[in-house]
Design brief:
Elements lengths: L1 H34 L6 H18 L19 H25 L6 H27 L2
Length: 138
């Protein structure tokens, strides 16, 4: 019984993370689409939502490496943990910037919009790669 409850709670948590990723994707897509006219499509919005959901589902809750191994003199950097940390930071920073632009009704230079889009893209890709690395070593 306890295992089923824990598994259900874990799935529920991961679904919540996926929803947060999808919401971040919507905000970035809304900002980028309102600035770059050819990205003002439902397809772009849908792709951003799906990629955000996959990135946050796979990349945020990764199983870590053991903390300390006595056999190693120099501890290894956990690449999955590093990628998920940096990727989550970049993706959420891009979403935060997009929300700020939308709420404050600003019109930043196109270069800033491209930086936001690149930050989002790189961050979510890093999350997906981190999730794949962490699950491959299980």
């Amino acid at each position: 019984m306890r295992t089923r409850v824990r598994n259900f709670a874990h799935v529920l948590e991961r679904c919540g993370l996926a929803l947060a990723g999808a919401a971040c994707g919507v905000f970035v897509a809304a900002h980028v689409g309102s600035t770059i006219s050819f990205l003002t499509t439902q397809g772009f919005l849908l792709v951003m939502m799906i990629v955000g959901a996959i990135g946050f589902y796979l990349g945020i809750d990764t199983p870590p490496l053991p903390f300390h191994d006595d056999k190693l003199v120099e501890p290894k950097v956990d690449s999955a943990e590093f990628l998920t940390a940096v990727g989550t930071f970049l993706a959420t920073l891009a979403a935060f910037a997009s929300v700020a632009v939308i709420i404050l009704r600003q019109e930043p230079h196109i270069a800033w919009t491209v930086v936001i889009m690149l930050g989002w893209s790189v961050g979510v890709i890093m999350q997906i790669i981190a999730g794949a690395i962490a699950r491959a070593r299980k």
